[in-house]
Design goal:
This protein is α+β, with helices and mostly antiparallel strands and 128 residues long. The protein contains 4 helices and 2 strands, in the order ααααββ. It has a two-stranded antiparallel sheet with strand order 1-2. It comes from Patella caerulea. Keywords: G-protein coupled receptor, Membrane, Receptor, Transducer, Transmembrane, Transmembrane helix.
């Protein structure tokens, strides 16, 4: 049998991406549930300690927010999903100036023409 050597391991770009996303999601999961766990351990270990109700709600909300944080992390880290959101153009990488120069002004760019008459709108898509 051949000895396994750590120098023989080659990580692909996709494996590194998945590892990074998994570590970030696990980290946020732990951060979200840690206050809830601490408060519950305090209740069990020190039953005489009284935490005000308004303060004890915060750890529960943090724990429940962990389910909403994961999709947000996935959306922010996934390039394909970010490209579908024009309002988050600040998260996209800027294109090279050379790439933008290669586009000619006469390229076929689809345009949307909107006409309004009374209460009705008419939209037409044209590629000129």
């Amino acid at each position: 049998m051949q000895k396994w050597n750590s120098k023989d391991v080659v990580w692909t770009k996709q494996e590194l991406y998945l590892l990074k996303m998994t570590m970030i999601m696990c980290g946020f999961y732990l951060l979200a549930w840690m206050p809830y766990a601490i408060v519950n351990i305090l209740y069990v270990m020190l039953p005489n300690v009284r935490i005000p109700h308004r303060i004890s709600v915060i750890p529960s909300l943090c724990a429940k927010s962990s389910h909403t944080i994961n999709p947000i992390i996935y959306f922010l880290m996934n390039k394909k999903l970010r490209s579908f959101s024009p309002s988050l153009s600040c998260l996209r990488k800027k294109k090279n100036k050379e790439a933008s120069k290669s586009l000619s002004p006469t390229a076929n760019v689809p345009t949307v023409n909107v006409t309004t008459s009374g209460n009705q709108r008419e939209c037409k898509l044209s590629s000129e």
